[in-house]
Write a structure and sequence with these properties.
eleven-stranded mixed β-sheet; 14 helices; two-stranded antiparallel ribbon; alpha/beta
Length: 401
């Protein structure tokens, strides 16, 4: 969605009205949120193409898992992708006014994936292709060169300088940082658009934000720097960042925003997904300041998020209740799944009855994209979204006090 206050009420506008009580007619606000979400059809499909990984990062949702190549090919993952992109290519103008996009979001690139990528380039030249990676794409740089494959954007995870990055991502072999850095150095050879660095903040790496910004911008390794906090799970709650440490993060982001952002170009982005982190910010900057900032006149309503500027830092908050936000999620076995399903293995998702609610449906090769999205919205709301909305309302009442 185009940034700024929409001319037509959006799900984020109704969400804000519900959370804050800032709406003359409060009746049926939940229904307005859902009906708006159903109209906000995203033009991005995000695909987990591979379940195995070379690393086991401390902050990562995924568990250790073997390759999913066999089940991907058995369930015709490539054809499912092709079907959706075909519909997006021809009907994108009926959805959001954004370019149709295929995002490779996990976990590592494999050789057979290039057949999917080349098919997209050949059949749908207007579809943008993006890769979220840790630098391991370098294993296939000869294929990129030989087949003249250019990505439209590339996101590389860099979670600190060498010591902290390796401690968080590769404590045993200590090779992850060098791989990520080499991936950034070579990135412009395989990318014709934006290059971004992604940094997930934990109690391990929270002191390295300024250092990472200096590294990537002074050496022109990236165009943007996206910072977010970790979503804790049972396996990594010990490295969740405290309020005291988040205060140090905040000071660093203020410094780098002032140094690297310009009037015409934002390079630093701070994204939050948990209301718990907004509550920590309230403690850091003071309740009066955050209460003033979170008034309607200071908010922009984007697709799946609200935006606001706090002490010259641009923040986007993505409420869990409004998932799926910007994309449709397809797992490696061809299933349409929900957020947080990544914390379970495919075996658990397919065979454990207690995990059934994390799988919306196994996709076929001829699914209607719009109908899949509508089903996704309804499934999430029924099983997760409505509960999150209740939690968010209570949390924002406390934040606003």
């Amino acid at each position: 969605m185009k940034r700024g206050r929409p001319t037509i009420f959006s799900s984020t506008y109704y969400w804000y009205s519900y959370i804050t009580g800032d709406f003359k007619n409060k009746k049926n606000l939940e229904e307005k949120i859902i009906s708006s979400l159903k109209k906000e059809i995203p033009t991005t499909i995000a695909v987990i193409m591979e379940r195995s990984c070379y690393f086991q990062c401390r902050h990562c949702l995924f568990q250790k898992e073997g390759s999913s190549k066999e089940i991907s090919q058995k369930n015709n993952l490539g054809k499912i992708i092709d079907n959706f992109l075909g519909q997006l290519s021809s009907k994108a103008k009926d959805f959001y006014p954004e370019k149709p996009c295929f995002v490779y979001c996990g976990r590592v690139l494999k050789e057979w994936h290039f057949e999917v990528i080349k098919n997209i380039r050949k059949k749908y030249p207007k579809i943008e292709i993006g890769l979220i990676d840790n630098g391991s794409y370098l294993k296939f740089k000869d294929i990129f060169s030989r087949d003249k494959i250019k990505l439209d954007f590339l996101d590389i995870s860099l979670d600190g300088l060498k010591e902290k990055h390796n401690q968080q991502r590769d404590p045993i072999y200590q090779k992850s940082f060098d791989l990520a850095l080499e991936g950034l150095k070579y990135a412009r050879q395989i990318t014709r658009g934006r290059i971004s660095v992604l940094m997930t903040i934990t109690s391990i790496n929270y002191t390295d934000i300024e250092k990472v910004a200096k590294l990537i911008f002074t050496k022109n390794l990236a165009d943007e720097f996206h910072i977010t906090t970790m979503t804790p799970t049972a396996k990594n709650s010990d490295i969740e960042i405290s309020t005291k440490k988040l205060a140090k993060v905040w000071q660093q982001i203020k410094k780098i925003s002032k140094k690297y952002n310009t009037k015409n170009k934002h390079k630093i982005f701070f994204k939050l997904y948990r209301y718990q982190d907004l509550n920590k910010l309230k403690t850091i900057i003071g309740e009066e300041k955050i209460k003033k900032i979170l008034t309607k006149n200071n908010i922009t309503f984007d697709q799946g998020s609200i935006g606001f500027n706090l002490e010259n830092i641009q923040i986007n908050y993505f409420p869990f209740s409004l998932w799926p936000q910007e994309s449709i999620l397809i797992d490696a076995d061809g299933a349409n799944r929900v957020a947080f399903s990544q914390k379970f293995t495919l075996k658990q998702l397919c065979h454990d009855k207690n995990k059934k609610k994390y799988t919306i449906a196994k996709l076929r090769e001829n699914e209607n994209y719009q109908q899949v999205y509508l089903r996704e919205v309804e499934w999430w709301w029924k099983n997760f979204g409505k509960n999150f909305l209740g939690e968010e309302k209570i949390a924002f009442e406390r934040i606003g006090k």
